[in-house]
Design goal:
By secondary structure, the chain is mainly beta. The protein has 1 helix and 9 strands; from the N terminus they run H-E-E-E-E-E-E-E-E-E. 14% of the residues lie in helices and 61% in strands.
Length: 214
């Protein structure tokens, strides 16, 4: 009788311990089942600021001018991760130059070049943060005049190339130094003998990349 009681007590303890062990295992699994530190996955968002040098030319004459007008630039990009080697997304990239009207009217003039681009980032080595970037889209070059109440601009085709590196600051946050070169082309007025407008901006700056997860 005593042996039977001991056996029943042991079985009861086993039956109580099994569901507890299963629940504990599931809980521990949830804590440790995270992506490796080197893996890129899911939605991402990148914000950046930079110094941007701008110059332009027309088909005739073909010389670039002026010599690298360096002013603030910015970008905002977001998208998804195809795999650890490739990210796809969209990017808003812009350059702004604000100055007084050189003719002495007292107006403030804001020159700008902005682009809305579809981009891809390629990471050649899965375990490194180095990447190459390319993109194509729509760009607009123009100027607005504060006090004058008007502005002019041309919409055209743009493309971008660049490179950068992601430095991990936290589990889902990266410091992202980057350099980009964006080109703009617009046809303008067909009756203008100078032809199409070509404009380019090189930027060197730093951004913050957020990768919330899957």
């Amino acid at each position: 009788m005593r042996n039977t009681t001991r056996i029943l007590a042991a079985l009861a303890l086993v039956l109580l311990f099994v569901p507890f062990s299963s629940a504990l295992a599931q809980r521990r699994h949830g804590l440790v089942d995270v992506s490796p530190a080197s893996e890129r996955h899911g939605f991402w968002l990148n914000l950046g600021v930079a110094a941007g040098g701008e110059n332009y030319r027309f088909d005739s004459p073909g010389n670039w001018q002026p010599k690298d007008q360096v002013e603030p630039s910015f970008w905002l990009a977001l998208g998804g991760t195809v795999n650890p080697y490739l990210r796809l997304g969209g990017e808003l990239n812009g350059w702004v130059y604000e100055h007084n009207d050189p003719s002495g009217t007292g107006y403030r003039i804001t020159d700008y070049l902005v682009g809305g681009l579809l981009t891809g980032q390629v990471f050649p080595v899965r375990t490194l943060g180095f990447f190459l970037k390319g993109g194509v889209g729509i760009t607009r070059s123009g100027e607005s005049i504060s006090g004058g109440g008007y502005g002019v601009g041309e919409t055209g085709f743009g493309y971008l190339g660049g490179l950068g590196y992601e430095v991990r600051l936290g589990r889902n946050i990266f410091l992202t130094p980057a350099a980009n070169l964006m080109f703009h082309r617009s046809s303008g007025d067909r009756n203008d003998p100078s032809g199409a407008l070509h404009e380019r901006i090189w930027t060197v700056g730093v951004g913050i990349t957020f990768q919330p997860g899957r």
